[in-house]
Structure formats: C-alpha cells, structure tokens
Amino acid sequence: MITKVLFLLLFFASMIAVGWYSRKHATNVDDFVLGGRGVGPWLTAFAYGTSYFSAVVFVGYAGQFGYKYGLSATWIGIGNAIIGSLVAWVVLGRRTRVMSKHLSASTMPDYFGKRYDSQGIKIAASAISFIFLIPYTASVYNGLSRLFGMAFEVPYSLCVIIMAALTGVYVILGGYMATAINDFIQGIIMLFGIVAVIWAVLSEKGGFYQAVQSLSMIESDVPLTMGQQGAFTSFFGPDLPNLLGVVVLTSLGTWGLPQMVHKFYAIKDEKAIKYGTLISTLFAMVVSGGCYFLGGFARLFESEEIYDGAGSIIYDAIVPKMLSGLPDLLMGIVIVLVLSASMSTLSSLVLTSSSTLTLDLVKDHIIKNMEEKKQLLWMRIFLVFFIVVSVIIALDPPTFIAQLMGISWGALAGAFLAPFLYGLYWKGVTKAAVWCSFAVGVGLTVANLFLKFISSPINAGAVSMIAGLIVVPVVSLISPKMDKEKLEHIFHCLEEKVWVSKRKSIEE
After folding, report:
1. Is 308 buried (19+), middle (13-18) or exposed (0-12) by CB count in 10 A?
2. What is the C-alpha to C-alpha distance for residues 314 and 318, in angstroms, rounded to an integer?
3. Roughly how many angstroms between the first and final C-alpha of the chain, as a whole number?
C-alpha cells in the first residue's frame, strides 16, 4: 500500500506543478485554448495519443472486445494506429492547421460557423459537442474508479471526486499548455506501463506460448463458429463483421471528435506535423495495440467475479480481474498508467467543452463585446461546471463503459466527421448537407439508444458515420451552393505561396 500511495503522491504532485508552471502560458484566449499555436511535435503527438486512449480503452474496450474476439481484438489497436493516427494526421493535420488559422477558428464549432458562413451551424455544433462529451467523460471516471476500488479499497464516489478535482486544478491553471506537457509525461508512463503489464500478466499464465495454447483450447460460444476450438486465437477471430464495426468506430471516429481535431489547430509548423505523424502512430501502435492484445487473453481469467447475480458478464470487471494478481510494485504502475490515460483524456474533454461553450455560444450571442479577461473567466467557470455535471453522471452511470463511449463517439463523429472532412477538401459542401449530417449523426444515435434497432451502440456509431459520409455529398449535389466569393476567400490560404529550403524541395 505504501508503494502505491507513493506512486500516486508523486504523480499528483507533478501534475499540479506542471499546471502552476504553465499558468504563464495561459494569459490570453489563444494561449489558453491553443497554446499560442506553437506546440511542437512531441507534445502534440502525445496529446493526441493520450486523449485518444483512456481507461475506456484499457478497462472497458480491451476487456469487452478481448473477451468477445480473442487475439483478433489486436486488429482494433492496429486500426487505431493506422487509420486513427497515421492516416488522420496525413489527411487532416496540415489542412486543419492552415484553414483554422486562416479563419481564426479556435474550436470545431467555430470552424464550422466560419467555413459554412452560418451562426446557426456554429451554435448547433457547440450544443452537440457539449451534450455528447458528457457521457464520454463519465465513462472515463467509471473505468478508472474500478481499478482504484480494487487496489485501494476506496469508495467509487471518492475516486471520481479526487480525479475530477485534480484534473480541474491543472487545466484551470495552465490551459492547453498544461494539458500538453502533462500529456507528454502521462504518455511516457503509458508506453512503459503497458509493456510491463503485458509481460507480467502473460508470465502469470506460463508465458506467451503457453497462454496462446491455453486460449486455443477454449471452445467458442459465438454462433458463427459453431463451438469450434481455436477461434479466439485465429487471425480474424470468431466474429469478423462486428470486429470491423469496432475498428471503424474507434479508428475513423477520431476524425470527427472535437477534442482530437483540436490538437491539429495548435501544432507549430510543417516539421512538427511531419514528426508528429510518426510519433503519434508509434504511440498508438504500442498503447492501443498493447491494450487489445492484453484483452485478447481475457477468457483465461474467467471466474465468478466477472459475472453479476443474473449470470451476465460484467465486461468492466475483466481487466481488473486480470490485474488482481500483480505484485504491489506493478500494481502501482498500473494505477498510474490508467490514471495517466484517464486524466489526459479528461483534461482534453473539459478544455474542449468549456472553450466551445464560451467562444461559440456565450461570446457575441449571450454576452456582447466580451473582453478577453471575461472570456478566460467564463472558460474556467465552464470547466468547473462541466466537471461537476460529468461527476454527477459518473456517480450513477446508466450503463457500462463501452456503451457510454459508443453513444458519445457515435453522435459526435456521426454528426461532424463528414462535414469536417469534406469541408477541408471540397468547395461544393452546402449548408443543407451540414444540417443533414448533424441530424443523421445525432438522430441515429439517440433513436437507437431508445429503440435499439441496432443491438450494439458501437455498430450504431459506425453506421451513423458511414451514413454521414454518404448523405453529405448527395445532399450537396442537390441543394443551393454557397457564395463563390466567400468560398474563394476560405480556400485561398491553401493556394498561398511560401518559400522552402531545398531540403524540403528540389524545384529550381
């Protein structure tokens, strides 16, 4: 217990110290929200990765999908690295940075409002962001608190409150720069921690080869496999269609999440984008790939502890059960690992939500001629408000972790992905198409929450994203076009000429 407590005290002290140090970088709105658009590749890449992967992945998704798909769940981590990180940076990174600065956009709703010349779209995007980031935040608390309860026998409610308070302190003090520096520290912990945990858990089952052999002897309970052995160690697992749905939601979904795209707004320059792409991809491959790979051995740890009184599996209890036999030193590392993943994601969520509400809803719409000091004050007030609301929901969560995250990702990515992606490359996207994408993304997710016409919220989220990608171009072709002069102004930034060294180009 002393070892675990010391780990935690050191971790908490470093987070607060970074917040105090970063307060000088949060004296105006641009610095507080974007770090002055001067954040380098390492900080940006780690901020992207740590915001991507939280306790939701480590506890909720790794346990649930590892149990369902076996070792083939590792494909989810590979998809996160290739589609969610590498391709996302290549496709979105540069253009998002150039266009957001050209339009003076600090948030995704602000970008939508200026890109599509519509205050209504801006306000709607702000409302969607705020509403659907809350269940995501609640899921982060839930996953972390399960491990805390196991390791320290601390009440769930106390875990939630402590985590929320500490995250709020350093974000309020230092804004985006505090979160970026802390994300870097937390990312280092995650990289080393996941490797150590995988080694320890597999050693408990006789090593990698023995664990795989034991897993291959388990008969599949998935109807598609008709009870055969070895399905959980096969290349594509026992249920490929549903596995692909998870890959789509957790990989492509990041392209439309406000807190993820926000990282591209703040990046410093071309060099930072180049190196950030590589760093982010490697980070995702190790952390996400490692989490799902570890979860793939979930069935080797099956016991009464992962079932409720009705005989249903408690997916959120699987990974804690896998870790329950670790030595104290490794358990301390695990706690700090999951705490790092959770607090980095939480800080990104609360900063995104508070800045969106302040800059996109309150400023100019509720309070006219809002001074910069008042904007900073309102953002800090909304930080506290958002944390309090998410804590209240987390104390009595309506469902398990993966469902909460699926609802959030499905609505946000379903609404925002298509208009954001197409809007960076195609002048033909119309306002009507954007409204239709918002309606489809939110409508499908909310309707499925009550009617359950798609059994899995994960698959429902994937469907809403794909629907948006189809709806936006179709509606754009048949609806009134935007003003040509305004479009030329918006896309002019991409045509501006810049001088580069021959290290970058050999053109004469």
Report:
1. exposed
2. 7
3. 66
Rounded (10°) angle between helices 401-425 and 62-69? 100
19 within some domain: yes
Contact 336, 109 (CB under 8 A): no
pLDDT at 425: 94
Contact 183/18 with Cβ under 8 angstroms? Answer: no
Confidence (pTM):
0.88
Separation of CA 21 from chain center: 26
Q: Would you say residue 51 lies in a domain?
A: yes
Q: Is the residue at 501 inside a domain?
A: no
- Residue range 272-301, pLDDT digits in tens: 899 999 999 999 999 999 999 999 998 898
**Contact status, residue 64 vs residue 139, Cβ threshold 8 Å:** no
- DSSP three-state, residue 153: coil
- 334: domain CATH number? 1.20.1730.10
How many independent structural domains does the chain possess?
1
How large is the average pLDDT for residues 405-433?
90
The residue behind tokens 């870097």 is: 184
**Which residues span the domain enclosing 128?**
2-495
Of 368, 369, 365, nearest to 356 (Cα)? 365
Could you write out the three-class secondary structure of 81-102? HHHHHHHHHHHHHHHHHHHHHH
- For the stretch 229-250, pLDDT in tens is 888 898 888 888 889 888 988 8
Residue 503, domain member (yes or no): no
